[in-house]
Amino acid sequence: MAKTLKEIAMFVGGELSGSPDIVIKGINGIKEAGEGDLSFIVSTQYEDLVEASGASCVVIPKQVKRSFSKPTIKVENPSTALSKILDVVLAGRIPHPKGVHPTAIVHENAKLAKTTALGAYTVIEEGASIGENTKVYPFCYIGKNTKIGRDCIFYPGVTIREEVVIGDRVIIHPGTVVGSDGFGYDIQKDGTQVKIPQIGIVIVEDDVELGSCVTIDRARFNKTVIGKGSKIDNLCQIAHNVIIGPDCVIAAQSGIAGSSELGRNVVFGGQVGVADHVKLGDFVIAGAKSGISKSHPAKTTLFWYPAKPVDKARDILASVGLLPKLFERVRALEAKIKELENK
Amino acid sequence: MAKTLKEIAMFVGGELSGSPDIVIKGINGIKEAGEGDLSFIVSTQYEDLVEASGASCVVIPKQVKRSFSKPTIKVENPSTALSKILDVVLAGRIPHPKGVHPTAIVHENAKLAKTTALGAYTVIEEGASIGENTKVYPFCYIGKNTKIGRDCIFYPGVTIREEVVIGDRVIIHPGTVVGSDGFGYDIQKDGTQVKIPQIGIVIVEDDVELGSCVTIDRARFNKTVIGKGSKIDNLCQIAHNVIIGPDCVIAAQSGIAGSSELGRNVVFGGQVGVADHVKLGDFVIAGAKSGISKSHPAKTTLFWYPAKPVDKARDILASVGLLPKLFERVRALEAKIKELENK
Amino acid sequence: MAKTLKEIAMFVGGELSGSPDIVIKGINGIKEAGEGDLSFIVSTQYEDLVEASGASCVVIPKQVKRSFSKPTIKVENPSTALSKILDVVLAGRIPHPKGVHPTAIVHENAKLAKTTALGAYTVIEEGASIGENTKVYPFCYIGKNTKIGRDCIFYPGVTIREEVVIGDRVIIHPGTVVGSDGFGYDIQKDGTQVKIPQIGIVIVEDDVELGSCVTIDRARFNKTVIGKGSKIDNLCQIAHNVIIGPDCVIAAQSGIAGSSELGRNVVFGGQVGVADHVKLGDFVIAGAKSGISKSHPAKTTLFWYPAKPVDKARDILASVGLLPKLFERVRALEAKIKELENK
Questions:
Q1: Nearest-CB residue to A288 (from C144, C291, C316)
Q2: What is the complex's ipTM, to 2 decimals?
Q3: How far is CA A80 from CA A37, A42, A87, A127, B104, in A?
């Protein structure tokens, strides 16, 4: 990058304390940063780390009152400021596809915008449409009649099957699959399973980010929905007819079974499981590995398997930890009772 | 679609009640259906929904005795009838590859049937063979000497490694990997791990369906087997030398460790784990997130981690839920005993 | 293969007992082997299986004192000996890419070694470098400035994003993704999530093996590290800034959350989860499905969810299994106390 502190402070609209001519060449965490690095702290609770850091400048929140011997830039939100800087740094670093590569196979009835970029070895089927400035990496497959908005990034090996609708600014990491068949079979009298056709669609709304190797199944009828701004981490499973509200954050390897619904701003730790036909209200939080089999109202925090409200789960787990001692206490009681009875 | 009720009733062999000339244009769930939609109920327990539905016609099971003000078609099995209709609707909707795309790279010693369809950017290695009417989407890789039957569908980005045998009518969703090396290492005295070569194969029998991003490892020796008609959902892991019987249904994110065996019609909820060298009999059912470390006989229903027969698991979980109260009761007993002792 | 016992004994440096001219045509497990097969046992505890085996020769460890009616080859480590044989057998069996396929798209500023092999439909970005004898299968994507060592094998559909460093002799199975963005967002006052740029890298050291559909995220800053010789099974998730020490063995579907650190020779069963910022010492073992939320010192064996040292977990689980009976015992005590009080 190589920018002066003056340039950086102006770019993020921050208040510089220290020499404006110092040159920054990299960005790093507060503990790992060295000479020439810019670093940051997100809140006042980390202000002790500033002086000790090897960074040449630290971006700090306005709330910090103390002054430091090293240059600082005060801003409203250091994390947002840093993201703004990083976006510029990254712009040159990641080789997003530009233009339409000659090996891209685009059906004559597919519609590309003027600035749609298709990498090498991409396949766009009949009736598909892709918006302005959307970048599609190699080995991506866009199915028939699928509509994709503008400013999206699809990394290598993403498969979007037919009739899917994807909004604007959606980021999809490698190997992710959207629109595969829901998992449904009718068992016959002889024990064999007959496939139930899955003719619904998937809607992925604006500003969604999907991690690597995420699987999102199409609905049996109707639609599976990933709500505006929701973020889904690597290796998650979203089954048919699931409805995820806006601004949810679902950590890796979580799975949501068929027809379940999440409200807005639901947050899951990793490896959470949700049974089918469950409804979770807005702002529900589930700790890692929770197994949720029932519906819960808004703002419930859940934990354990089977999942319970976290206070109850903690009481139970504390009790469970003391169980071997409880058995001893009961044995002691039984002995004493015997003694009393024999008196 | 646009078919009259008369045409639909004839096609599914059902008994129409209502005007034969009504035109159906779509299919939808009983609650979501509107004007021009065909819908269905699977059993008599849902018959209250028929009258309230916006559907123009509802397919109902023969057992329904009531009559309705809206058109109905009575059939033996509404779900099967609907699937039959949907198959026709979908036939035109999904753009399965046709013929052999000029960019398909087929080894001169690979054998394709006359009607094998290979999409763009597919790679078929030496000695591989693919049967009649099998459709292979873009970015699929078929390894050396692998044999694939007829009427299969492999969606984009499926990798089948060498020496694998796949039957007829097998459906494989995007990103799935069959035949990767089993996970086996010999630890050396210095703590390093030496890879154990995996020279066995995988057999995927007729009528199997594999979801997206499923991983099925080849055997160390011999074979890993997915039995006839079994269905395996997204993101499942099947380790080396696992034998899965016919007509099993394994929900998403489940994993089966090395050399374990499942009988026929075994059913798993999501995120189930099975340890290595475990045998589960026919018709075993495991609830979501169960962790199965031991063998269980046929027809056992399992739940929890570590998994137990469901009745036992329920008793235990009910007790666990009451644990904090049990501690209070024991404390009360201890106090009373002390009182009695001091008398 | 078709080799004589004399040739095989010489090749593995073993002591042959039996006719040197017998011809071996295949290799199989001790129970499954038949006429013409070579088999093996790994320790003396299996020596009863030798006589009963259908194998034409069995490789046995030096510790076996008994003599057998069938040919045997005594070696220090039968498993290692067999692996050595299998390596030769497999060399001809797996069709690794040779040379650079004409459809490989290699940026003019990428550097290939003389013996780098690129399969059909591979994409190598600007500044990437790949070492001698590394084999890259079809549909692999190697990002900008990524450095890959020698003697690696990347199976089909592997995606390595930009600025990643991969050592020598690394094996990566199909569909695996290295270097996707870490999962990090700043929540705004209006509840929306703003992406935190992830500008760190991933380092995959020498002799690592990654299974199929593994996801390894790049660091926010700095690096995510997979230590020398570590083995990671299918469908595992390694989050941003995770540091895995050397010679770890992580079984399928396990996940490690952001910034956690594993020492050397850590072993996980399947479906283990580790929370963020956890440190596990050298030689820690975690049983399948364990949910690890806290740091643990070296040599701890963990089990259950939330994970505890295994002795404690076993005590607790034994107690939990007896809980319904404990409730009965407490009820009986309460009745007796009432009786005593009423005396």
A1: C291
A2: 0.93
A3: 18, 9, 10, 39, 47
